[in-house]
Amino acid sequence: MASKVRECRARVVAVRRLAPQVLEADLRLEEPPALDFAAGQWVSVPFGPKTVRAYSIASTPVRPRVLTLCADVAPGGLGSRWFVGLAPGAAVAFRGPLGGFVLARADARRPLFVAEEIGIVPIRAILAWLDETGFGRPARLVAWARVPGGLVYDAELRSLARRHPAFTYHPVLASADGPWRDAAGGLAEVVDRAVGDVRGLVAYVAGGEAMIHRVRDVLVAKGLDRKAVKWEKFW
Fold first, then answer.
1. Is the same domain home to 216 and 179?
2. What pLDDT score does 50 carry?
3. Alpha-carbon dihedral angle through residues 83, 89, 91, 95, given to the nearest 10 degrees
4. Contacts of 133-138 spanning 24+ positions with Cβ under 8 A
5. Where among 76, 98, 120 does a domain terminate?
6. Residue 125: is its pLDDT beyond 60?
7. Same domain, 129 and 226
8. What is the pLDDT of the chain when averaged over all its residues?
9. What is the DSSP letter of 38?
């Protein structure tokens, strides 16, 4: 598991636009010089005494000196404006690592990952970490987006599925009607069809609250223990 939560200082070394409203920023740690964290965790950026914003770490613990944060800036709020304004050389203070949306190497259960748009970020970190350190178990990902550009990391995930036969990737795009018109209905239907036997399964579900509830209900109806559904709510 990751170390205790730290007050950290870093400097931006690169910013990339993955989609019209999705940005990545690489932060090189200055204090501490490296951060011990687990794939799937997040950091908290302060904007005042009682105002903070959370950003998932998209990178893996294999490279602890540079963290990659990823954010959907479409909301246009305080955190979005800050992220849009990041540029190489900018100083960043944050607190972390935080969160328990992590996969334990000792857990022998096969993981099912379910992501709604920007919810893919912590899941991408976990999958990249497994790619770097050895999968060791079958895994499946179902990811939903309103438009093709919303499937950030799509090319990377398709490549991962080609290189690891035990990893299955199901990208899902919204449709004008039917259950796929929203993430809750679309992901619930795909999970219902894709998952048969839930014995030995653990689910990692990240995105909006409505989707998390729908997908969890589908899995519990199949016999999965509610405690075997881990979730990360983005909105």
1. yes
2. 86
3. 60
4. 133/62, 133/105, 135/164, 135/166, 135/167, 136/105, 137/108, 137/109, 137/110, 137/111, 137/166, 138/110, 138/166, 138/167, 138/168
5. 98
6. yes
7. yes
8. 93
9. -
What single letter denotes the amino acid at residue 84?
V
* Residue pair 59/66 in contact by the 8 Å Cβ criterion: yes
For residue 180, name the pLDDT band (cuts at 50, 70, 90).
low
3 state SS of 218: helix
Backbone dihedral angles phi then psi of residue 234, each to the nearest 5 degrees: -95, -25
At 176 the pLDDT is 56
Only one residue has tokens 């990692």, namely 204
Residues 54 and 159 in one domain: no
Report the greatest alpha carbon distance in the chain: 51
| pTM (predicted TM-score) | 0.94
Is the pLDDT at 12 greater than 70, yes or no? yes
If you average pLDDT over residues 93-104, what whole number do you get? 96
Quick one: 177 and 73 in the same domain?
no
